[in-house]
Amino acid sequence: MSDLRNDALDIIDYSIKAVLPDNAVKEAIKKRKLPDKIVLVAIGKAAWRMAKAAHEIVGDKIKSGVVITKYHHSQGKIGDLKIFEAGHPVPDENTIKASSEALKMVSNLSPEDTVLFLVSGGGSALFEVPQEGVTLEDLTGVTNQLLRSGADIVEINTIRKRLSAVKGGRFALLCKPAKVLALVLSDVLGDRLDSIASGPAYPDSTTWEDAIRIIQKYGIQLRPELLKVLKNETPKSLDNVETEIIGSVSRVCEVAAERAKMLGYEPMIFTTTLDCEAREAGSFIAAIIREVVTSSRPLKKPCALIFGGETVVHVRGNGKGGRNQELALAAATKIEGLREVVIASVGTDGTDGPTDAAGGIADGNTAQKLKKKGINIESALANNDSYHALDAVGSLIKTGPTGTNVNDLIIALCK
Ligand SMILES: Nc1ncnc2c1ncn2[C@@H]1O[C@H](COP(=O)(O)OP(=O)(O)OP(=O)(O)O)[C@@H](O)[C@H]1O
Ligand SMILES: O=C(O)[C@H](O)CO
Ligand SMILES: [Mg+2]
Questions:
Q1: What is the tens place of the pLDDT at every residue in 147-175?
Q2: What percent of the chain has pLDDT over 70?
Q3: Residues 279 and 399 in one domain
Q4: 254 with 199, same domain?
Q5: What range(s) does the MOFRL-associated domain occupy (predicted)?
Q6: Residue 1 pLDDT
Q7: Residue nearest atom 14 of ligand 1, based on CA coordinates
């Protein structure tokens, strides 16, 4: 593997490790005086790691607790906490079973109790009890449609909240009269707290009108009864919750810049809010790489272009892939023939779309290698089949579940 590829993978690995939530959880807890009786509820792809960190410093105070994470994302026992794995990105029976367990633990608490609520992305699928009149089939149907529609996460979660008994601030109401301390790892651009994991303990800023507009915009099919459920108002203020964001994509980009510098590249963070269609982002970043190579603008070589964010994919084909893989594949065409360049795109959670890859990597030879294998990039993109294309040329990045979840990181190196 070329040095450049190694360097890109090194920067990614280093940055993800540096933003694992352990220290941040511990710091946030240490600076507060927590009562002697805590109920712990941890949700999301980083739930296990966040719960482990909390347990290490206030384990003696935790009277009961539930950890709900994605399949294959837990790593063993944590004291007496009940650990569940469940469906993601679409909820399943285990989601509801585990979440009901959490609701049992927070019912009948007193004003002296605190619910330590550890929130990470993926929480929307993993923490769910449907509202009355809503079935699990309704949720899977609507979620599947939304995920393929090209709707962004704020829009998707606007709908999820209103079909749920725990999202959109409703979980915090169920914890009353106990207090809730929510420590949040953000995987939503702009750190919108009411969107992260659909904001179970945060006042909802979205309205019924927003929900209807989104349903129409993306042509989402709903049973007529669900339209009535959508009307039930979510809490717009909560008086028992304290919230702190303990990690986000900005930090991972900053660490990536530091690491790039250590490896001899002049770094530039272009944005931490990249949110366009994945393939467009790939083409655009490739165009910047070309500019660097041909005209030393906006940076001279050796340099590292760093982008954070979460692109979207309108899934139209029936192939396999994810937004990071699509971005890398789209970039491959546009950097074809360039020497000493590489672009790598990963989900910091270690899973990109419904695949076992975290993302993809491409250099100036990738397009040529694909041609030799008889793979047409245009067709692969048209079929949303970036996984098989990149796999054929050894260009998938696989990290396994990382223990964190702070959006996507894209590194382009030019030497
Ligand atoms: N074949 C495909 N090619 C490209 N993208 C796909 C494909 N199939 C699904 N996707 C995308 O993958 C996304 C879900 O994957 P992933 O688990 O990485 O999302 P996520 O945003 O990290 O989840 P969460 O935010 O809940 O942590 C969907 O939103 C969809 O747009
Ligand atoms: O779970 C979710 O809704 C997304 O990961 C955003 O937090
Ligand atoms: Mg995410």
A1: 989 898 999 999 999 999 999 999 999 99
A2: 100
A3: yes
A4: no
A5: 8-230
A6: 56
A7: 353
The residue behind tokens 């169920």 is 174
Q: Which domain holds residue 184?
A: 32-247
Atom number in ligand 1 closest to CA 405: 27
- pLDDT at position 350 is 96
Closest CA to 74 of 57, 92, 51, 99: 51
Whole-number Å distance, alpha carbon 117 to ligand 2 midpoint, is 15
By most ligand atoms within 8 Å of CB, the mutation choice from 43, 312, 315 for ligand 1 is 315
Here the ipTM equals: 0.95
Q: What is the dihedral of CA 173, 122, 403, 346, to 10 degrees?
A: -150
Give the tokens for residue 103.
């609701």
**Domains: count for the chain:** 2
Say how many Å lie between the CA of residue 368 and the centre of ligand 3. Answer: 32
Evaluate whether 5 touches 363 at the Cβ level (below 8 Å). yes
Which of 198, 225, 247 is where one domain is finished? 247
> Is ligand 2 within 6 A of the CB of residue 402?
no
Which single residue is written with the structure tokens 């979840």? 405
CATH code: domain of residue 406: 3.40.1480.10
SS3 273: strand
2 pLDDT more than 90: no
Closest-CA residue, ligand 2 atom 3, reads: 197
> What atom of ligand 1 comes closest to residue 310's alpha carbon?
21
- What pLDDT score was predicted for residue 150? 85
**Pocket-forming residues, ligand 1, beta carbon under 6 Å:** 45, 89, 121-122, 124-125, 147, 187, 313, 315, 319-323, 326, 347, 349, 351-354, 384, 386, 405
120 neighbors 46 (Cβ within 8 angstroms) = yes
